[in-house]
Automatic annotation (TrEMBL):
It comes from the Bacteria. Residues 33-115 form the Carboxymuconolactone decarboxylase-like domain. It comes from Aneurinibacillus migulanus. It holds the Pfam family CMD. This is Carboxymuconolactone decarboxylase. One of its GO terms (molecular function) is peroxiredoxin activity.
Length: 131
């Protein structure tokens, strides 16, 4: 049963994060296998695999939560995951903009810098929509 749970989480994790996420998880596993197991079993098998929200919706929630916390260290993985599962760059930018009203400019601008960096690395170009 535990192996099935882990495998379920592993499959979701790979879909979301691709080879970059797998490489990062391998680094974590080398130092702390228990943490890597918790990430996959709890985060991705128990939470991301639940019915009720699809992966795009879950990433929207995750992005807004990370922005709200100012947790920019985890933001690159989740911006990439959001793109990997089909969220558009404009949708991601809209999440940052929406959060600005509730979390303030410093956290939103920090998130914006991370998003811009990811877009640049992935050669994503979007034009401004104006306000």
């Amino acid at each position: 049963m535990e192996n099935e749970r882990y495998q379920k989480g592993w499959e979701v994790f790979k879909v979301l994060t691709g080879t970059d996420g797998v490489a990062e998880l391998e680094r974590i596993h080398a130092l702390c296998p228990d943490l890597a197991n918790l990430i996959i079993s709890n985060g991705f098998a128990d939470i991301y695999s639940r019915p009720g929200l699809d992966l795009k919706e879950r990433e929207l929630v995750t992005l807004s939560s990370l922005i709200t916390q100012g947790a920019t260290e985890q933001l690159p993985m989740h911006v990439n995951a959001a793109l990997n599962i089909g969220l558009t760059p404009k949708e991601i930018m809209e999440v940052v903009l929406q959060c600005t009203v509730y979390v303030g400019f410093p956290k939103a601008l920090s998130a914006f810098a991370v998003v811009m960096d990811i877009f640049e690395k992935r050669a994503i170009h979007i034009s401004g929509t104006g306000i």
